[in-house]
Amino acid sequence: MQATVEPREVWLRGNLRPVAGMALLAAALVGIALGLAVAIPLPGWGLALVGVAGGTLFFCTGWLAWAAGQPRLVRRGQTVEVRLAPLKLEQVPLGVIECVFRGTEPVAEADGVQPRFRVGTLVLRLAERATEWRSRQFFGPWGSWEDGHIVIDGRWCEPLSAESARQIATRLAEVKREVAAGGCA
User: Fold this and answer.
1) What angle do CA 170, 171, 173 make, to 5 degrees?
2) Which domain holds residue 151?
3) Are strands 88-93 and 79-85 parallel, antiparallel or unpaired?
4) Are residues 109 and 49 in the same domain?
């Protein structure tokens, strides 16, 4: 007997743009290290150290690129998979999500000065009655999950617009109507 797998419907994709700069920096650092290793005669252990450091840097950059490229919102059956951390995926029942809308958040400055700009966000409001879904652990740069609101930071997902938020909200409403009508959605 074969287990059935619910089809995936990606509602919000991840974003590789922030990783691109880090990948270029990693490549430059490894290139400089290899250039120095060739120009300055190093013992065997020195070359091995440069190789291990370069390989580790490329591995970490590749892993970060994989994590950043994972979708943030995926509908699978009667759940929405929410990814707010590289290795953590929460499966939220459709009935718990009340609405989806576009928002903004100020970008905090390191020195505590008044923020100079705001970043677009996508907000999922969860039902107050669903107290077990009020908050979860999250990876701060990707968003937050507190007080019944899931806030996805627009810098770590595909570009957010009023239209993309409206499409996700419309699809949520359609799927919830299908489920309420007894369809399998």
Assistant:
1) 65
2) 73-180
3) antiparallel
4) no
Strands 73-76 and 8-12, bridge-based pairing: antiparallel
Give residue-wise pLDDT tens across range 5-24.
Answer: 778 999 999 987 777 777 77
Last residue of a domain, one of 43, 69, 95: 69
More confident residue, 102 or 179: 102
The reply to whether 111 falls in a domain is: yes
| Residues belonging to the chain | 185
Among candidates 116, 112, 118, which has minimal Cα distance to 154?
A: 118
Residues 6 or more apart from 74 whose CB is under 8 A from it?
Answer: 8, 9, 10, 11, 80, 81
- pLDDT band at residue 73, thresholds of 50, 70 and 90? very high
Residue 32 lies in a domain: yes
Q: How many distinct structural domains can be found in the chain?
A: 2
Give the end of a domain, one of 40, 69, 98.
69
Using pLDDT thresholds of 50, 70 and 90, give the confidence band for residue 121. Answer: very high
- Model pLDDT for residues 94-111, shown as the tens digit of each residue: 999 999 999 998 887 766
CB 139 within 8 A of CB 84: yes
